[in-house]
Design brief:
Keywords: Isomerase. GO terms for molecular function: 5-deoxy-D-glucuronate isomerase activity; glucuronate isomerase activity. The chain is mainly beta and about 290 residues long. The protein has three helices and 22 strands. The longest helix has 4 residues. About 45% of the residues are buried.
Length: about 290
């Protein structure tokens, strides 16, 4: 099993006000990274984007971001289960400051960049929200830098909300070859699990070979990270009774910043069963944009 290599436990990369800091060096690859900043009420943090482009994406709470001589207010949200959120795109080579009057937690999903693009405020109304799958494969996908109007150099970001007991990232799929139907994309999953009655809950994550050696079958909890350099990934199984959230960060060498993947041919038939099933009535978990 490769769990110890690819599963990064909550708190294991923490330093200062960053509760998570998975750099490209820590992941052992070239493109993707993620930091999660936890600010107390009235707190602030200076950050540099360096060679990376990134989003400031509130998980809980709101903030202001001072960058390139301008101040941007992000309204944020109470929690990932309550709403989608506005967010801010920051290109490479920027120094910026995040401040939060009420306190909160803010994800900074990032990718190495090869182009210089402008800072861009993205209101929640621009987030493309969809329901995917049916039956016990139903889940909600919120696109922040994927399949919408936000132009990035290489960064792709979405979040997935899966009701307890459902299978997500299913059928298993991969994106580790460059061809007409697939792109090479490193991927990070950052998890939150909605606990019940002081019980934190859990989920399961699988990754297995697609011509590259990898074998992960792991129990994951809130604020864990799984890095996926290659291989078929899925399912992400939300344990019954515990809703699952994960933030997807993807990037790779292709200049078209496009998400293209292929299913494991042994399981792609599952998609055909959705035509005769209803979407889980617990969805949407947050209001959808039209």
């Amino acid at each position: 099993m490769d769990n110890d290599t690819h599963v990064i436990k909550a708190g294991s990369t923490a330093h200062g006000q960053f509760e998570t800091d998975v750099s490209v060096e820590r992941a052992g690859w070239e493109w993707c990274s993620i930091r999660v900043l936890a600010l107390p009420a009235g707190g602030q943090q200076e950050v540099t984007s360096g060679e990376a482009e990134l989003l400031v994406l509130p998980l809980t709470g709101g903030c202001t971001v001072e960058v390139d001589g301008h101040t941007h207010r992000l309204q944020g949200r109470d929690e990932v289960w309550s709403a989608i959120t506005d967010h801010l795109y920051i290109p490479r080579g920027q120094n910026f400051t995040i401040r939060s009057e009420e306190g909160g937690r803010f994800a900074l999903p990032a990718s190495k960049a090869t182009r210089d693009l402008p800072v861009r405020y993205c209101p929640a109304s621009e987030v493309v929200t969809t329901l995917r799958g049916a039956g016990n494969c139903s889940r909600q996908v919120n696109n922040y830098a994927l399949g919408n109007d936000l132009e990035t150099s290489h960064l792709l970001v979405c979040e997935v909300l899966t009701p307890g007991g459902n299978w997500s990232s299913y059928p298993p799929h991969k994106h580790d070859e460059h061809n007409d139907v697939e792109r090479v994309l490193e991927e990070i999953y950052y998890y939150e699990v909605r606990g019940v009655n002081d019980t934190p809950g859990f989920a399961l994550q699988r990754i297995y070979p697609s011509g590259h050696p990898i074998d992960v079958c792991a129990e994951v909890h809130s604020r864990d990270v799984v890095i996926m350099p290659h291989g078929y990934h899925g399912p992400s199984v939300a344990a019954p009774g515990y809703d699952l959230y994960y933030l997807n960060v993807m990037a790779g060498p292709a200049e078209d910043a496009t998400w293209l993947m292929t299913d494991d041919p042994a399981h792609t038939w599952i998609r055909g069963t959705w035509e005769t099933q209803q979407v889980d009535p617990r969805l949407p978990m947050t209001p959808l944009n039209n």
